[in-house]
Design a protein that fits this description.
The chain has helices spanning about 10-25, 40-55, 80-85, 105-120, 155-160, 180-185, 200-210, 240; strands spanning about 1-5, 30-35, 60-65, 65-70, 95, 125-130, 150-155, 175-180, 190-195, 225-230. The protein is α/β, with parallel strands linked by helices. Helix 1 packs across helix 2 (about 40-55). Bound molecules: fructose -6-phosphate.
Length: about 240
């Protein structure tokens, strides 16, 4: 596992963008994208490179990690919409796919999305953020390390954490469809970005703690190719564990 510590969020974004840039220019056609705050610096930098440096995503199909259940199509906080606003509308991606959180048969929609990711994959580079409780995608603590894409329920901590994107915590959906830890782990290269001290405990547990469903991101320790990019705030726990 490569662990890279950068000064601030913008520098982290540039380092992660370098990984995506290199992959795309050398022929990657399948990328995994995350939403939330953590990837925004990466998307800003990739958009800049698209505009100024000829980085083209025309041959790339992108797959989202997760989606809220029950938000109307086009809701500004649905992840399908967020990825358009923050990234896809500004570049030339060949396609963007995500789970259908509006389906009347959510289990089938989750299984269909898992099958799509598998048949389109393996994902060349998968971008990840991490929750303060160690979740990746929306695999909350207790998620089996070999789990597949499924409907699951957010913890109250994650709903509180994500309330900042909505009018209030009551507006945050309880249920989501998320790629499972097994699905995520089938990507060739996992790249996790985390910034701020609020993520430090989760980063230390993920990288230096036991591999356990209680810390879903600890599944990264089992993967042959992982790059973790953190700022100094998110790195504060790493010295103690010798990473
Ligand atoms: C989002 C996702 C989540 C977030 C995590 C961190 O698609 O899969 O795992 O990466 O909740 O969110 P932020 O970056 O907003 O702190």
């Amino acid at each position: 596992m490569d662990v890279i510590v950068e000064r601030d969020e913008a520098a982290c974004g540039r380092v992660v963008a370098d990984v995506f840039d290199r992959a795309v220019r050398s022929g990657a056609t399948t990328l995994g994208l995350a939403t939330g705050s953590s990837p925004l610096s990466v998307y800003r930098e990739l958009i800049r490179r698209h505009r100024e440096e000829g980085l083209s995503f025309a041959a790339v199909r992108a797959f989202l990690l997760d989606e809220y259940v029950g938000l109307p199509v086009g809701h500004p906080q649905s992840y399908a919409q967020v990825i358009r606003t923050e990234f896809a509308d500004h570049v030339d991606l060949g396609g963007v796919f995500g789970p259908d959180g509006g389906s009347s048969d959510l289990s089938s929609a989750a299984a269909a999305y898992d099958a799509l990711v598998v048949s389109s994959g393996p994902v060349d580079v998968q971008l990840l953020g991490i929750g303060a409780n160690g979740h990746i995608g929306f695999n909350e603590p207790g998620s089996p390390l070999d789990s597949r894409t499924r409907v699951t329920t957010l913890t109250s901590q994650t709903r509180q954490d994500n309330a900042r994107f909505f009018a209030g915590v009551d507006e945050v959906p309880h249920r989501v469809i998320t790629q499972g830890l097994g699905t995520i782990s089938s990507a060739r290269h996992l790249v996790l970005i985390a910034t701020g001290e609020r993520k430090a405990a989760a980063i230390a547990a993920a990288l230096g703690g036991p591999v356990t469903p209680e810390c879903p991101a600890s599944v990264l320790q089992l993967h042959p190719r992982v790059t973790v990019v953190v700022d100094e705030g998110a790195a504060v726990g790493l010295d103690r564990i010798g990473v």
